[in-house]
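One thing: could you explain this record?
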Amino acid sequence: MTKQVMFYEEATPISKERHADMSVRTGTDFSFARNVNSVPVTAVEFPLAAAEYAIVFAGTEEAVMPAVVLGAMQDRNCFVDESGNWKAKFVPAFVRRYPFVFAGSDNGDRLTLCIDEAFAGCNREGRGERLFDADGERTQYLNGVLRFQQEFQAHFNATRAFCRKLKDLDLLEPVQARFTTPGATGTPWVESRPSIAESSRPWPMTSWRRLSEATNWSWPTCTCIHCAIWRAWREVSGNKPKPLRPPATKRPRTPTRPNRLIPNRQKRMQNRKKPQRLSDTSIP
């Protein structure tokens, strides 16, 4: 296969005949994602992704898919540094699954596990994890990769159904982002993408209910999805956003103590003579 999805260059179906002696060494080098400015993200990743990325819905009028924005420039990922390290705490599953990917058949009823043979970690010298053992059977590593891809594909399909429901309920509207990076000259970079309707247009309660029923997701999850879309874009435009501060909480009121006598007054009270009782009084 030629380059067809993001950073995949030569995705080839995995087979015992072709990859019997192949090993894969993965690590923390994400240089392969240096030239992409966005990657798809599934809805189950929204709570973690929204804390560090801007989330938009990209696609066409017929179909959209959520994506995290990684850079304001067309071929630049500002989350990958010069050493290939990923600068955010959360790495999207679309990136973590590399160099493996599912390829669908022409009729879409079958998925084939592929590997990008152009990945620098692919080798036949035994470095890293083997795909097949000496008997030609799949190793535990390859079985783990297959399970991860199946789980990702299930979440991907669920997210696609969620996006269809968003369009059916007319909860998406086009937005346009304009960036002028520090020190840049000329025309600023402009990107137009569909996004969830802004908070000034409240969602009808019937839409909330139908969305929750269609996706089997809780209302807090749907609320997180709504709020995540409007995160500030300062990170991808080169301006570091200010850290969010937790809301101020009121301290519980301590019960007031009774007023104490001032020292001088307390001393006078102690020196005051007590009234004599009748039994103590002598009759002359």
Q: What stands out?
A: Residues 56 and 67 are 5 Å apart (CA to CA). The first strand starts at residue 11 and ends at 13.
